[in-house]
Specification:
Elements: H1 5-8, E1 10-15, E2 18-22, H2 26-37, H3 51-60, E3 69-73, H4 79-86, E4 90-94, H5 98-110, E5 116-118, E6 131-135, H6 141-156, E7 160-165, E8 176-185, H7 188-191, E9 195-203
Parallel strand pairs: 3-4, 3-6, 4-5, 6-7
Antiparallel strand pairs: 1-2, 7-9, 8-9
Helix pairs in contact: 3-4
The structure holds S-adenosylmethionine.
């Protein structure tokens, strides 16, 4: 599948020096993409920069990641991976939604970096990364039940796992160390609120 993304999404500056393609509202975007492709698709999570990734991106922009092998897990539009790449990391952007990785690559191009991509379900895969970024995925119990043992295994094998989370229902904060907290701008049509705190946590193995 390949779409003319600028026709459906608007280039927006989300952080100083960092742009992303986003939509003002989910439902019109969803309908327009289904009409363009002529098939049903899942929710277009990739049309929004979620607060968890915004927090991760702000934290990553303070770091030197030269030469670091990073995974942006469940990347959506890939903001965390794009910022990691801008800071020098070589990044694999992963999402099981093929449209998400297309948008992530379009966002990388907007910002003058490149991302490798994968649409495999990597949960449980052995690590070939030094840094794993997990932006805003603690919203659904079945996904979290699979994710937690994998994050534990990654940390035990020496990987740094950074989670960006705005207080989602299934985030087990007792399992993580707070790194930084930010007030991030939100879009009411996607987030239900205007601004909310979003934090970066370092995962610790149980
Ligand atoms: C709320 S969005 C977050 C996107 C992005 N990380 C951000 O913060 O902007 C959640 C994403 O998780 C992806 N996802 C769900 N299950 C996944 C899995 N098993 N592997 C990879 N991605 C997954 C969805 O397709 C969706 O893009």
């Amino acid at each position: 599948m390949s779409l003319d993304w600028p026709q459906h999404l608007t280039r927006t500056t989300v952080l100083p020096g960092v742009d992303a393609l986003t939509a003002a509202e989910p439902v019109p975007l969803w309908e327009a993409i289904e009409a363009s492709l002529g098939v049903r698709i899942g929710p277009p999570f990739w049309g929004h920069v979620w607060p968890g990734s915004l927090a991760l991106a702000r934290q990553l922009s303070t770091r030197d990641l030269a030469g670091v092998r990073a995974l942006d897990f469940a990347c959506g539009g890939g903001l965390a991976g794009v910022v990691a790449a801008k800071q020098g990391a070589s990044v694999l952007a992963n999402d099981i939604d093929v449209l998400a990785v297309e948008v992530a690559q379009a966002n990388a191009a907007l910002n003058g970096v490149t991302l490798a991509v994968s649409t495999n379900d990597l949960i449980g895969a052995p690590s070939s990364w030094e840094l794993v970024l997990v932006g805003d995925v603690f919203y659904e119990a079945p996904l979290v039940a699979r994710l937690v043992p994998w994050l534990d295994a990654l940390v035990r094998s020496g990987v740094e796992v950074l989670v960006g989370d705005p207080g989602r229902q299934f985030f087990p904060r007792q399992r993580a160390r707070l790194v930084a907290e930010y007030e991030v701008a939100c879009v009411p049509a996607w987030d239900s609120v205007v601004d909310r705190p979003a934090s970066v946590w370092q995962w610790s193995a149980s």
